[in-house]
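User: Fold this; tokens only.

Assistant: Input:
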Amino acid sequence: MAHPGPPPARLTPDHARRIALAAQGFAEPRPTGRIDARHIKRVLDRVALLQIDSVNVFSRSHYLPVFARLGPYPHKVLDRLTAYTAAPTRPIMFEYWAHAASLVPLEFQPLLRWRMDRVHVESWDGIRRIARDNPALLDDVLQLVEQQGPIVAGDTGIPRPAPRPGHMWNWHEGKTALEYLFYKGVVTTSKRVNFERYYDLTERVLPTGVLAVPTPSEDDAKRDLVRISARALGVATEADLRDYFRISSAATKAAIVDLVESAELVPVEVDGWRAPAYIWHEARRPRRVHARALLSPFDSLVWFRERTERLWDFHYRIEIYTPAAQRRFGYYVLPFLLDESLVGRVDLKSDRQARVLRVQSAWLEPGADPGRVAAELAEELELVAAWQGLSGIEVMPRGDLSPALAAAVG
């Protein structure tokens, strides 16, 4: 149901949750027939970008937000839209640093050029060091891409160093140089095959129509990004709006002033929120939301943990990089959304060789109905297992929801 009239000056937490869910595409039922590119594009219009991640213990993260909103859809359709395939494609998204590493609509590229121009400031020291200490390597690697692109990092011929304790990425100098050029926007991802990135000159990858768009001023670009964030979030604090595209607080505050003045953002108080909030002027305000979804740790509904806790009183931290003995809930834990609430969490692993989805632990949130949660979660797990090509579900005896879930799975 569309919002009836102007936004209110005050919202209850229930209203804020419904607005947030509607903005992210959870207030509509999943399609019942064939799911095609039009459905996926509608999801992408809502969320604005998909965060990517290399962890594949359950599923690559960028596939999951689309499943959460649409249910079982053909992986290959999203692969064609993102060039994550060796087959010829006409992608509608490109990779860049937006909310961390992300797939971003092509038309957003001009809005991110300020970040490319500020690679010497915006990027992290690990790749800035190459430009500072070895600029000749940058020239050599760029020449290699010009002459032989698209290339993979191994084509630079530079060996990978020995693993180093405490280092998440074990990049060699050639890979680091490519990543600097990627951040600068000189090269981009031409395609991915088995998630390996192929680098090529941006001018050979992105459509000429996108590259020809005049570069907006940095202030205008950041205002547009905050505008996109506001639409995707529905109701948000300054911190929420800042986080979506990882923009500075000062720039976000300046954009908010402009968007309030233009009446695109309306100041609003949310009961229980300490910080001032703003509602998108066209935000839907449904009376109820009936949703069911497993949420990737990198889903835009929950990726900003402070907002997740504020909206649902749900304390959530990814524990991939936590030593096993210190993990509270598990390695790759997904929150479970049921109607308007986060009611549980499950640690999932796809055993592709055995064709089994393993629920390594399952946990119930306080106040949730274990019988209903287990039954609904079992159905969702059956859907996602079949979508992944897995033929069975095995529930391990860890977590307070595991007994009920094991019984529901049968």
